[in-house]
Amino acid sequence: MMLYLLDRAVGRTNAVSGRVVRTATKMKPDDVHRVLSSQAAGGRVNKAFDESAGPRGEFKYWLEPDQAAEAKMYRLLSGGRLPYRHEGVSAADIATRLKFLLYCKESTYLGEHKILDSIIADYRAALKQISQTDT
User: Fold this and answer.
1) Which one of 52, 61, 66, 124 is separated from 85 by 20 to 30 angstroms, measured CA to CA?
2) pLDDT tens digit string along 34-90?
3) CB under 8 Å to 63, separation ≥6 — which residues?
């Protein structure tokens, strides 16, 4: 479900309704509402009630760009696809990646994942190694 939002609903102008998510994911209405409401309560998704969407209205859901970045990082972490290889990568690129990883650890719920600590340590070691070879 979060992947669907990540692919289609970044920014309020691209907000999708619970009905659209339910149709795309083939989930039960109660499950969609429960999952999206809990994600919104956790600050991982934005939610707003749209009264202009018919007689009963409906909730619209979307991801802000920083939430989308967190979701992408979680996808990489959980899938084990975050790159560990640093050959041919500049020190500036590694420093930028490290800065983003530290932001994720300190400012988001991703800091709960222990694998993030090992990835940060790996990036620090790579940055240290590059700085030592440059001097």
Assistant:
1) 66
2) 888 888 887 778 888 888 777 787 888 888 887 777 777 777 766 666 655 556 667
3) 5, 6, 9, 10, 11, 45, 46, 71
pTM for this predicted structure: 0.55
Cβ distance 47 to 40 under 8 Å?
A: yes
Q: Under 8 Å CB-to-CB from 119, ≥6 apart: which residues? A: 77, 82, 84, 101
The boundaries of every CATH 1.10.10 domain in the chain are 2-62
Q: From the CB of residue 59, how many other CB atoms can be counted at a distance below 10 Å?
A: 20
Strand partners, 48: 60
